[in-house]
Amino acid sequence: MNRKSMHGRALSRMLVVVVLLAIVGALFYGWNEFNRFSRAPLDISVQGGSVDVGRGTSFRNIVGELRERGVTHANPIYWRLLAEQMRVADRLHAGEYALDIGITPRQLLANMAAGKVLQRNFTIVDGWSFAELRQALSQADKLRHDSAGLDDAAIMQKIGSPGDAPEGRFLPETYAYVKGDGDLDILKRAHADMSKTLDALWPARDKNLPLATPYDALILASIVEKETGRADERARIAGVFVRRLENHMLLQTDPSVIYGMGASYLGNIHKSDLTTDTPYNTYTRAGLPPTPIALPGKPALMAALHPAAGTDLYFVARGNGEHVFSSTLEEHNRNVDCYQRKHCQ
Known about the structure:
Layout lengths: L2 H37 L9 E5 L5 H10 L7 H11 L8 E5 L5 H10 L4 E5 L6 H9 L13 H7 L15 E5 L4 H19 L12 H14 L6 H13 L7 H8 L9 H5 L22 H8 L8 E4 L5 E4 L2 H11 L6
Antiparallel strand pairs: 1-2, 3-4, 5-6
């Protein structure tokens, strides 16, 4: 073999080595880039975003939407390789998925494969009226508004409680929902939760309460809910109303009067309002009003079923959220003069 031929073969070997090294280097670089892509957070700068995967949407279109929105600038091949590596390419579920700050491509695909759709929360606030609940539901984001155009009676029919008055029958709690759920779904759950709560609490009530049914307890709890927001006063205020019922005294609770005034209430209650008879005027009618006047929370229900013992028959607001209690009308009148008319002696 001559020297020229040997030299040619050496050059060929070197070329092969260089090519192999280049291929290995490219593969190594690509692998590092792929791993960096799969672990690096997506380009999300504002919390609260989401991506909606429609039923039947292809993997290619999902990645395309993410690229169009600027969430990712990576080559679609990386997304396909990652999905194949995770074995989820054909197992992505339809739904709305959170695009939280810091989420990685691997985490997002895992969520889609597990059907871990974005959940939102709707909170029913203690003391809301049913009208306020309906108004809040109508403004809830990504919630189907199936109750729009229905009156209260139709809503109760839809949720499986025909003929019942809706006031007070929905438990104030936080309810999770996903895109595609409807407001009637939340109402049905809140209604069931209130029924279950009453069923659980009623048997353990204090003995000899002047409450004939769980619904009576619901009505009393709604009054307690509207009279005070203080945890340390609920049972004491409930005790006042229980003793007034036992003594056949008028309840004389302003929140019930206000509820009965409806839209005519403009922020202030006048003496003439206390003498104008309505089914909810507890200054003119004895006993409990015909329905609850608000949605009572569990603490108010507990207070109604376990009122504080004592001799208090009256209370008046101090003006700072607290109340002053008294056992006699004479003492109560002095408290009214002091805390409402500012004629303290």
